[in-house]
Write a structure and sequence with these properties.
By secondary structure, this protein is α+β, with helices and mostly antiparallel strands. 23% of the residues lie in helices and 39% in strands. The protein is built from 4 helices and 16 strands. Strands 12-1-2-15-16 form a 5-stranded antiparallel sheet, covered by helices on one side. Strands 5-6-9-10-11 form a 5-stranded antiparallel sheet, with helices on one face. It has a two-stranded antiparallel sheet with strand order 3-4. The longest helix is centred in the C-terminal third of the chain and has 21 residues. The protein is globular, with a radius of gyration of 19 Å.
Length: 236
């Protein structure tokens, strides 16, 4: 699993992801199957990519296909299907879905695909491979955020929460809206990194698989270009 988030505000689009690659392993013991989950193999896995046409792609869900990290498949898709092409965000989302649906399984993985159309309008698409779906998640001139993967931590942080009192009654805690429409590009970057760090830190202390972690990659896309705010680099 993973955690990815895409914010779309007036100034641009921000895409961010973690870097952990975890292995789910089963072991047979007599008639019982013991499941060993989330054996961390790597914190250097790439999950966000910049494709031609200033289109960003982030992946979540199954992080390895046929025993190979999914990053290699995404890079192959970009090189084989997008190089030398001028495709819309919608076309890239559909091509990505078709490409991964042809793989064995097909894999239980998903993507965010984001960029701008020819009129300068932001487009953010969610691609679910096994379900065979590619759906646009944002509306024109509406600002907000979309996230996938281990999203329960962020949901609890920004959605209404009820707690049970001593009498057994549920009381709602104070809830405050997030004014996405007032976010600057810097605030979108800050929220993306906050969401990833909060998820990583919370999972660290919870009795659950440690499926989110490692460096955070952050990509910014604007109508006239794209650039990395931070991206892990290879080193000796």
């Amino acid at each position: 699993m993973s955690f990815i988030i895409t914010l779309y505000v007036r100034e641009g689009i921000v895409m961010a992801s973690d870097s952990r690659l975890a292995l789910n392993k089963t072991m047979q013991q007599g008639e019982q199957t013991v499941l060993h989950v989330s054996v961390g193999l790597s914190d250097s896995n790439y999950k966000t990519f910049l494709a031609p046409g200033n289109i960003g792609i982030s992946t979540f869900g199954e992080a390895a296909i046929q025993g190979v990290p999914i990053a290699g498949f995404v890079e192959s898709f970009i090189n084989e299907r997008l190089r030398g092409q001028t495709l819309s965000v919608h076309d890239v989302a559909k091509a990505l879905l078709d490409y991964f649906c042809q793989l064995p399984g097909p894999p239980e993985t998903g993507f965010h695909v984001a960029g701008y159309d020819g009129k300068g309008s932001a487009q953010v698409w969610r691609v679910l491979v096994r379900a065979g779906q590619a759906v646009q998640v944002n509306a024109k001139d509406i600002h907000g955020a979309a996230w996938d993967g281990e999203g329960d931590i962020v949901h609890r942080l920004i959605n209404p929460v009820w707690v049970k009192d001593q009498a057994g009654n549920y009381q709602q805690l104070p809830a405050f809206d997030i004014p996405w429409q007032f976010f600057t590009l810097q605030e979108a970057i800050d929220f993306a990194t906050f969401a990833l760090r909060a998820t990583t830190d919370a999972i660290r202390f919870q009795a659950r698989p440690k499926t989110v972690g490692g460096p955070i990659d952050v990509l910014v896309i604007k109508p006239d270009g794209a650039f990395w705010v931070q991206r892990k680099e290879l080193h000796a």
